[in-house]
Amino acid sequence: MGAVSHEAINQLKTLMDQVDGRLKRTFQNVHQGYKAETLERFLKARDGSVAKAHKMLLDSLKWRLENGIDDILSKPIVPTNFYRGVRDSQLIGVSGYTREGLPVFAIGVGLSTFDKASVQYYVQSHIQINEYRDRVILPAATKKTGRYVGKCVKILDMSGLKLSALNQIKLLTAISTIDDLNYPEKTITYYIVNVPYVFSACWKVVKPLLHERTRLKVQVLQGSGRDELLKIMDYSALPHFCQRDGSRSSRRGVNTTEDCFSLDHPFHQQLYNYMKKQSGNCAPTRPLKHGSVHVEMPLADIKKAEICRTLESELKRFHSQDDLTRLHDIQISD
């Protein structure tokens, strides 16, 4: 939908002014001083309905309280070597900023394996990056640009995407559902690059099922997308997988400080040091313990469940075709 009316924002603000103190405190962590802009995000997520946006926001604030989200940045995943395994298998990072000052999040969809830790660690890590984005990165970008910056752009690298991605759909659906319900309208555009055939075919099936608001945010670019992305950001802000053309674009960076997925990259170093500092501020005498933060994962809505089933069905179809191709190749070689 388009712009949300001031009347709807004021109505939702009046309702939120009536919530109890605990909800107000956690709401402050959400809006970071930009209450109207935050209310607008939730209204957009519910097509301008004040009643639905109010329920969505209340449910989100209760989820935050029940799962200790306000304190999640004081709970780093330790030890560091274990966290490095999480970072090497859940590929996400910040490569820089657009010329308008929006942070550029890079996500290695195709090469993420999610096989170095339990589901809860990956969920915990994802939420921590969300909270760091909203409480540290975006406020800093707002201060630097002199105007409110409340969204980011995301570049999704599909290189290396295999049929084994079928095993990750449920985890990815759970993570995206957490985002939909608790961090709505935080991404202005999704750029998809290094697209293999299996994704192209699945995208044709899934695209019609998406909400128009989501479809309009997605841009599938040719190759590494470098030329298109350079229209909105400098070369230095490109993720490492977009800086080169051809087959080499999918490889991890040789220099780990340039590889925005690596724990050695400045973004992850700053994030991890921030969490360790917060941990010390909250409990200076208590040693860090190795254990994940258990976060209640909401069920996907009917629409998302339908998309998930469709995607699973399409990937299974490709898996069957791949099996037949291998069998045919064996018969020929025999």
Automatic annotation (TrEMBL):
InterPro entries found in the cross-reference section: CRAL-TRIO_dom, CRAL-TRIO_dom_sf, CRAL/TRIO_N_dom, CRAL/TRIO_N_dom_sf
CRAL-TRIO domain boundaries: 79-239
Gene3D superfamilies cross-referenced by the UniProt entry: CRAL-TRIO lipid binding domain (3.40.525.10)
PROSITE patterns (alphabetical): CRAL_TRIO
Classification via SUPFAM superfamilies: CRAL/TRIO domain, CRAL/TRIO N-terminal domain
A UniProt-annotated Pfam family: CRAL_TRIO
SMART domains linked: CRAL_TRIO_N, SEC14
Coiled-coil region: none
Protein name in the entry: CRAL-TRIO lipid binding domain, CRAL/TRIO domain, CRAL/TRIO domain superfamily
Native species: Helianthus annuus
